[in-house]
């Protein structure tokens, strides 16, 4: 038995609905992912601009500080997605963004290697599950047919963030008089 509100949707209507949803959701999640990726890789741009000298980091220390982010991220990635399914995307994305913002802001006050390790680990914990949660969230809104296009648009945040961060680094180094 068909309910009155369940009508067959034509291909044109489905396409129009998907396009409308895409224009409402994709700009925001793409911007979040763009910022996420810039923030995750910011340490690579901070190092040649004085961070290694200020914190007296060796190459090994820098590598450990860079990599410890992923330990926190990997450990809590799956639990984060389970909690997103429990609490809902809106609440969970807000939690991720707020804790991530707080930890990222506190990173500005790092004064030694140990503090850097703690903040990078906490940044990984705060961001844990963000990228997979976005992909899961997109599956709620888009059919299998449209999902490939939508996720590829979302993933454009990676190369765009790299371009912006590299141009910022080059500009910063040029202003400081350091060769690029």
From TrEMBL:
<dbReference type="GO" id="GO:0022857">
    <property type="term" value="F:transmembrane transporter activity"/>
</dbReference>
<dbReference type="InterPro" id="IPR011701">
    <property type="entry name" value="MFS"/>
</dbReference>
<feature type="transmembrane region" description="Helical">
    <location>
        <begin position="58"/>
        <end position="79"/>
    </location>
</feature>
<keyword id="KW-0812">Transmembrane</keyword>
<feature type="transmembrane region" description="Helical">
    <location>
        <begin position="117"/>
        <end position="138"/>
    </location>
</feature>
<keyword id="KW-0813">Transport</keyword>
<dbReference type="InterPro" id="IPR036259">
    <property type="entry name" value="MFS_trans_sf"/>
</dbReference>
<feature type="domain" description="Major facilitator superfamily (MFS) profile">
    <location>
        <begin position="25"/>
        <end position="180"/>
    </location>
</feature>
<feature type="transmembrane region" description="Helical">
    <location>
        <begin position="21"/>
        <end position="38"/>
    </location>
</feature>
<keyword id="KW-0472">Membrane</keyword>
<dbReference type="Pfam" id="PF07690">
    <property type="entry name" value="MFS_1"/>
</dbReference>
<feature type="transmembrane region" description="Helical">
    <location>
        <begin position="150"/>
        <end position="169"/>
    </location>
</feature>
<feature type="transmembrane region" description="Helical">
    <location>
        <begin position="91"/>
        <end position="111"/>
    </location>
</feature>
<dbReference type="GO" id="GO:0005886">
    <property type="term" value="C:plasma membrane"/>
</dbReference>
<dbReference type="InterPro" id="IPR020846">
    <property type="entry name" value="MFS_dom"/>
</dbReference>
<keyword id="KW-1133">Transmembrane helix</keyword>
<protein>
    <recommendedName>
        <fullName>Major facilitator superfamily (MFS) profile domain-containing protein</fullName>
    </recommendedName>
</protein>
């Amino acid at each position: 038995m068909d309910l009155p509100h369940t009508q067959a949707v034509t291909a044109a209507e489905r396409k129009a609905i998907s396009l409308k949803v895409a224009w409402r959701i994709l700009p925001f999640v793409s911007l979040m992912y763009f910022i996420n990726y810039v923030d995750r890789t910011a340490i690579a741009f901070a190092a040649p601009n004085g961070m290694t000298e200020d914190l007296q980091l060796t190459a090994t220390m820098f590598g450990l500080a860079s990599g410890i982010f992923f330990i926190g991220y990997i450990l809590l990635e799956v639990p984060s997605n389970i909690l997103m399914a429990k609490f809902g995307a809106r609440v969970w994305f807000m939690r991720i963004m707020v804790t991530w913002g707080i930890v990222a802001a506190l990173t500005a006050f790092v004064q030694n290697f140990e503090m850097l390790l703690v903040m990078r680990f906490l940044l990984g914990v705060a961001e844990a599950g963000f990228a997979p949660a976005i992909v899961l969230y997109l599956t709620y809104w888009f059919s299998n047919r449209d999902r490939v296009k939508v996720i590829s648009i979302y993933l454009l945040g990676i190369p765009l963030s790299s371009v912006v961060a590299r141009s910022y680094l080059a500009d910063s180094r040029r202003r400081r008089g350091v060769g690029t």
